[in-house]
Amino acid sequence: MTKRYFTIGMAGHIDHGKTTLTKALTNVDTDRLKEEKERQISIELGFAPLYEDEEIQISVVDVPGHERFIRQMIAGVAGIDLVVLVVAADEGVMPQTKEHLEILDFLGIRKGIVAITKIDRVDEEFSDLVKEEIIEELKGTVFEHVPFVLTDSLSLNGIDELKQLIIHTLKEQDTRDTKGAFRLPIDQVFTVKGQGTVVRGTVYEGWVEEGQPLKILPKGLEVRARQLQVHHQPANTAYAGQRAAINLSGVSKEDIERGEVLVSSEHFSVTKTIDVAVRMVENFEHIIKQRMPIKCHIGTAEVMGRIVFFDRNELNDNDGEILCQLRLDEEIVTKRGDRFILRRPSPQETIGGGWVIDPNGEKYRFGLKTIEELSKKKEGSPKDRIMAALTEGKSLSLSEIMTRTSLDEITVKEVLADADFLSINSKEFTLAAIKESIEEELYDRLHEFHHQNPMKQGLNKAELLQVMLRAYPKMLVEFVISLGTECGIFRRKGQYLQNADFHPHIPQNWQKRIENLLAELKKDGLKVKHFDDYYFSAGIPEVLKGDLKRFLEEQGTIVPLDGQFYWHGDHFGQTVDKLKKDTGAEFEVGDAKEVLGLSRKYMIPFLERLDSMGLTNRIENKRVWRKTDH
């Protein structure tokens, strides 16, 4: 069973007990800043591990409740899978509770639990009134039918019940996509003494591992993941749904800003103009006008811009879903389906939210024709729907594509004939972009391996597959390797795979010493010393011995007689030629000794090497030359 990773959020009004409830559930105090403790409010996002078993891992984010810290709240909620809406029994539903509910709805959070806190402060009758008030408030929202739990974080009343409900709910829920390209919107950047720059965030999709080359968008900075932590614990890999801290090489703290995105692929759009579907809040106080300044919160980014309508000049009341465009002042990283929140910069208030129809919007004319085009784009053309299905599934059969897209066979086959799609084996299909992404990742992994191990033939294909299969189906990876080999990108050497532009070589800084070793070996002819003596004499370190011996053997520069003695390749070839020339079709040990004049110390290992190489075949006391070139 593949382990699944989830992040849940605590949302609600200031001072309703979110941080205390988080501590009761996790035994971690998420108020980490001095000013937070002094003022007893959360300013920054607070994270803590909640639960882990062989099946799932659950983390908690405690998002700030104060209106001034709404940006951090949106950044935290945007990466979560389930929300615990916290309402204090002694206060009930408050303005920030309502705003948080609207934001959760706009961000597409559909799973929730209501935790009524501080129940030890009120009697049973009063807590029942609060519950009825909350039920009334939730009517018509996505949380209308969510379960309730009565809790008190100090006495721990109801805490275990809440925890078990969270675990049970998430075990029934689908996890995020760990097979897509890695994406982590950055919400914190800092430095650690002796380590360098660290970024933190929730992995939206995909996975990342130590040593992996990455990019920071929109700037396009190339970095490498030096070290990973998941909730302060070292980890080799971080998956979608996990909260991760990544130590980056190749960049300073000053180069990175909150809101930028760490990715493993360039297939994410960097854009300033996005076509969107927007819904507005139920009751907004001020008219929303054409090209009005807005503040867009998407992922962890907060960007100023303007809203552009194509079928109206102003909005007086909630009018259902509106198709329009956001023209932003700065570039963001997004893709179709991403959720966002819109806020008025002044006076500050949440005015709506929605999802990205097309991250690469263009300038359109005002009028119903544009709305019709946006509507078609929203529904998605057959090609859009198939591309979306393959982006998620990586490789799918014809019937799987039909099921996921609700398209008929003729339409699907017509679309799959497009150059953007590839047939793997006439039964499975993938995207050309996915093939290119896998090809690039394979090349990068092999390049890194060659850099670290210049004398090795390449990376064991089975080891490479083991890593790649975390993200892609085996058939798809095998297909890309096969295609890349045919096209001259990769080269197979037995069980090893190498980049076609790589050739095993001795590191330049050891070249002279190894030349000295080979010269000494050649000078000794057939009466060689123990091979370790040549290493010692040439000053070659122990750590290089294994790789060097394997490399020289593979190149034919040295030939082992046994584990102790090696001949120079030239001498070995000449000796085989001489023995074959001066003996008949078959010979005995004595015949070989007479021809070569070698002692048993070298003769017996040499003859056994001829047998193992298939040059001779031993029959009792005789050896017969095989009909083969050596």
From TrEMBL:
GO CC terms in record: cytoplasm
GO biological process: selenocysteine incorporation
Residues in Tr-type G domain copies: 3-174
Primary site of residence: cytoplasm
GO molecular function list: GTP binding; GTPase activity; RNA binding; translation elongation factor activity
Gene3D superfamilies: 1.10.10.2770, P-loop containing nucleotide triphosphate hydrolases, Translation factors, Winged helix-like DNA-binding domain superfamily/Winged helix DNA-binding domain
Alphabetically ordered keywords of this record: Cytoplasm, Elongation factor, GTP-binding, Nucleotide-binding, Protein biosynthesis
Name the UniProt record assigns to this protein: Selenocysteine-specific elongation factor
